[in-house]
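COURSE: Structural Biology Practicum
ASSIGNMENT: Worksheet 4, Part C
STUDENT ID: 0417
INSTRUCTIONS: Below are two proteins. For each, the amino acid sequence is given first, followed by its structure token string. Answer the questions at the end about the second protein only.

PROTEIN I
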Amino acid sequence: MKYSNATNYALHTMVHLMRLPQTSTIGVQELAEMQKLSPTYLSKILTKLTKAGLIESMTGVKGGYKIARLKSRISFLDVINAIEGDTHLFDCSIHHGEGCLIENAMRQAEENMKVELDNTLISDIVAMAETAQHRKRI
């Protein structure tokens, strides 16, 4: 099980956006430079985050991107679902009817992971990043 690089970049992008003052925006070029990404590639990620309602795009002289929701309510799961979609990680490929015990066990494990990811807030990571010992880890 592995999430795509896009999810990695989306999570880092959300941290950068959350560190901005509430009314400030940042352009795609600057966000891309912070992560050493192509602006075109990052734009595709930003589009998914925008469609999910996590960020918003502002046009004009002071245009760019900013957080669209209450910062303290955005979880890792929100970002992952925006990029990867909300699909199951495991589906039994043996067609032997409903109630496959292996599929049920895998779905329960997946549900446990989703609960953990939903309880992990981007704002908590931002708070950790503000301490000197974690500053370089984002």
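PROTEIN II
(use this one for the questions)
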Amino acid sequence: MNASDIDAPGFLGVIVLDTRFPRPPGDIGCPATYDRAGIPARFLKVPGASARRVVQTQDPALLGPFVDAVQVLADQGARLITTSCGFLAGWQAELQAAVDVPVHTSSLLQCAGLAAPGIVTFDALSLNDRVLRLAGVPAGTPVEGLSPGCELQARILADDTLIDFDKARDDVVGAAMRLVARHPEVRTLVLECTNMPPYREAVARVTGRPVHDLESWLLDSWRALAAAGAGAQSSSTRRDG
């Protein structure tokens, strides 16, 4: 099933930033992420929402356009809506209040239900107490960011059309290793950045911890919605019969 099929009876809506940098499979903004899972997805870009404005500035002028985007996707038939930046957890309440379907803005929302989580983030300086609190992250949860100016961070902030994915993997793995070295009490890792899921297995391998990210959460949530829908349809069929 093609992830861009707009005739699907229900789909996963993905609100993406206004960027051009490459996104490998596993990245939340990559159509192949959903194609390979057999999930119909529809993408909606928010004009002017650069990585810098969303991550580092956290520009409040963008809230309205993101609210509009979730409403458009819900009106078109989305059964689940997500975003391509974990820092949008700061607007989880506003975006969820705008629609009746589930909204998963960020993998950070999982932290409250995990045992001794630690967070690997795109930008530790920008992942402030406000965003963590609004995401429901337990106080004192350890956070480790990518090294400032590393391949993945620099290329995304510059909206470059080229990224060395081997170096990007090493950037994410390096941050995860620093996190567990500084906080050996961490039992589970959460990748905040939606560009990090392609490196989930590498992180799990070197840290020996389970790794949670937005891709895996979305796939689980979609399967749960599909199962619930199938169950409801089966019950209705039995009643009608």
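ANSWER KEY EXCERPT:
Q1: Residues 1-8 have pLDDT under 50 and may be disordered.
Q2: Residues 214-240 form the longest helix (27 residues).
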